[in-house]
């Protein structure tokens, strides 16, 4: 019998008790996989990075309300099913539906009954999402078929559309893999296993960002590093380990450097590994510091990627011959893949540099 995957749900609330209640009644059932956002701004970023089938949002939010957040999402073209939760009047309920909410739930006095109703409502919203996704898939298939026919006739614009569609589907497949890993990380009780799964998710995210960039870009050949690298930094900043909140991740990228996909994917994973390694081993808990990613032109035909950290916990040197972690072994292998040269400077803040060829 086929096991159905948990429904990915984004729960937006600035009240920790509401999040704890949702986790206890919904997440533990195994039918849903919840992520929590504590502000509309954080929720918007998470929706941009991940694919959710349902958004649940508290009506009352600090400095704003759920309807304003809903307005912002709908104005951006985001059509994910949206459930508003509150303790409000019939007028608010009607306004919510008129402004594009799919459902409104009154919290009421019976906490258990409320979560039973919310569970059922999320399932209804998920079915609505799945039906809409099937329609988009069918439309995409029709577009692909039409594009392939036109591409065979040698129409370059249609070929570009086909390539964009491929990047879009690859990105979605990578996000699906990421969701599966997230589901397993929630279910495991072993901290080491959970850490491994989260590291894998971040590696996949660095690849998915490239395909998302190419899908949205007019340039289907190369990726501008000044656009791509900050997105990796943002993704890892949002997932800093406990005690690393004061560590800032800074990027400096030469705006003229663009890489083809065969070079960009290894570079993205290398950046992910070096930042992750620095967050794990470079700082003591509560320490204030910086991780700086620089990409510049080293000499004609060569670019340099450098990741520096100011942490006090870093070992005095990194052994490149016998990398102690899978991450460092991966960095070495990927450096070889892009014909790069890896070097370490630890006469002060630890700095790891990779010089590699690229086409200007």
UniProtKB/TrEMBL annotation:
Gene Ontology MF terms in the entry: ATP binding; protein histidine kinase activity
Task: Give the catalytic activity.
Answer: ATP + protein L-histidine = ADP + protein N-phospho-L-histidine
Source domain of life is Archaea
Alphabetized CDD domains for the sequence: REC
Instruction: Fetch the Pfam families from UniProt.
Output: HisKA_2, Response_reg
Q: Which SUPFAM superfamilies match?
A: ATPase domain of HSP90 chaperone/DNA topoisomerase II/histidine kinase, CheY-like
Q: Which UniProt keywords apply?
A: ATP-binding, Kinase, Nucleotide-binding, Phosphoprotein, Transferase
Check the record and name the InterPro entries matching this protein. Answer: CheY-like_superfamily, HATPase_C_sf, Sig_transdc_His_kin_sub2_dim/P, Sig_transdc_resp-reg_receiver
Recorded E.C. number(s)? Answer: 2.7.13.3
- Enzyme class, UniProt record, top EC level: transferase
Q: What's an example Gene Ontology biological process for this entry?
A: phosphorelay signal transduction system
Q: Which residues form the Response regulatory domain?
A: 8-122
PROSITE patterns named among the record's database cross-references: RESPONSE_REGULATORY
**Protein name, as recorded:** histidine kinase
Phylogenetic classification of the source organism: Archaea, Methanobacteriati, Methanobacteriota, Stenosarchaea group, Methanomicrobia
């Amino acid at each position: 019998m086929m096991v159905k995957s948990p429904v990915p749900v984004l729960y937006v609330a600035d009240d920790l008790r509401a999040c704890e209640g949702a986790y206890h009644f919904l997440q533990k059932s195994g039918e849903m996989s919840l992520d929590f956002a504590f502000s509309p701004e954080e929720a918007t970023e998470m929706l941009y990075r991940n694919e959710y089938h349902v958004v649940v949002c508290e009506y009352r939010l600090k400095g704003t309300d759920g309807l304003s957040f809903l307005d912002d999402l709908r104005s951006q073209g985001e059509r994910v099913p949206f459930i508003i939760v509150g303790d409000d009047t019939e007028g608010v309920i009607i306004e919510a539906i008129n402004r594009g909410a799919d459902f409104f739930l009154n919290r009421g006095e019976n906490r258990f009954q409320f979560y039973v109703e919310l569970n059922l409502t999320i399932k209804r919203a998920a079915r609505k999402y799945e039906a809409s996704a099937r329609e988009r898939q069918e439309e995409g298939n029709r577009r692909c078929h039409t594009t392939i026919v036109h591409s065979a006739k040698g129409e370059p614009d249609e070929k570009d559309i086909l390539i964009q569609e491929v990047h879009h589907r690859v990105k979605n497949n990578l996000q699906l893999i990421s969701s599966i890993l997230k589901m397993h990380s929630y279910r495991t009780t072993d901290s080491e296993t959970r850490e491994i799964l989260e590291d894998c998710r971040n590696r996949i995210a660095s690849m998915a960002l490239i395909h998302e960039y190419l899908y949205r870009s007019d340039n289907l050949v190369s990726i501008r590093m000044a656009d791509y690298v900050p997105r990796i930094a943002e993704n890892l900043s949002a997932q800093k380990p406990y005690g690393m909140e004061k560590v800032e991740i800074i990027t400096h990228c030469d705006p003229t450097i663009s890489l083809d996909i065969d070079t960009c994917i290894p570079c993205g994973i290398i950046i992910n590994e070096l930042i992750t390694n620095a967050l794990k081993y470079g700082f003591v808990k509560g320490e204030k510091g910086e991780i700086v990613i620089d990409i510049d032109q080293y000499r004609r035909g060569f670019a340099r990627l450098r990741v520096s950290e100011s942490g006090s916990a870093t070992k005095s040197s990194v052994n490149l011959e016998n990398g102690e972690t899978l991450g460092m072994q991966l960095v070495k292998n990927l450096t070889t893949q892009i014909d790069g040269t890896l070097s370490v400077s630890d006469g002060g803040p630890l700095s790891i540099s990779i010089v590699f060829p690229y086409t200007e």
